[in-house]
Amino acid sequence: MAPWTPQPAGLQEILQTIHESTATSATVQRNITEKLNQFTRAPEYVAYLAYILSSMPQEEDRIRTIAGYLLKNNARLILSAPQEVAEFVKSAVLSAFNDTSIMIRNAASQDIVAFLGVLEPRNWPECLQHLVLALDSTDFDRQEAAFNALEKACEDYPRKMDVEINGTRPLDFMIPKFLSLSDHPSAKMRSHAVACLSYFVPINCQSLFVHIDAFIACLFKRASDDDPSVRRHVCQALVLLLAARPEKLMPEMSNVAQYMLYSTKDKNENVALEACEFWLTFAEDQELAPYLHPLLDQVGPTLLDCMVYGDDDLLWLEGDAEEDNAAVPDKDTDIKPRHYGGSKSHGYERETNGEEAQEAPKTRIGAYGQELLDSDDEEDYDLDDDDFADEMTTEWNLRKCAAAALDVLAVRFSGDLLKVLLGPLREKLWSQDWLQRESGILALGAMAEGCIEAIEPHLPTLVPYLINTLNDPKPLVRSITCWTLGRYASWCTQPKSEEHKNQYFIPTMEGLLRMVLDNNKRVQEAGCSAFATLEEDAGPALAPYLEPVLRNLVIAFDKYQHKNMLILYDAVGTLADAVGKALQNPVYVEILMPPLTGRWAKLKDDDEDLIPLLECLASVTIAMGPAFLPYAGPVFDRCNNIIHNSLLAYQQYQQNPDLDEPDKAFLVVALDLLSGLIQGLGMGLEPLLTASNPNLLSLLTVCLKHPQAPVRQSAYALVGDLAMGCFPLLRPAMPGIMQELILQLDPEPKFEFVSASNNAAWSVGEVALRYGRDEPEFQQWVLPLISRLIPILLHPKAPRSLHENAAVSIGRIGLMHPNLVAPHLPEFAQAWCQALYEIRDNEEKDSAFRGLCTLVQTNPAGMAKSLLWFCNSIIRWNQPSPELNNMFQTLLQGFKQHDEAGWAAQVSSFPPVIQERLAARYGV
Question: Cis before residue 823, ω within 30 degrees of 0?
Answer without folding.
Answer: no
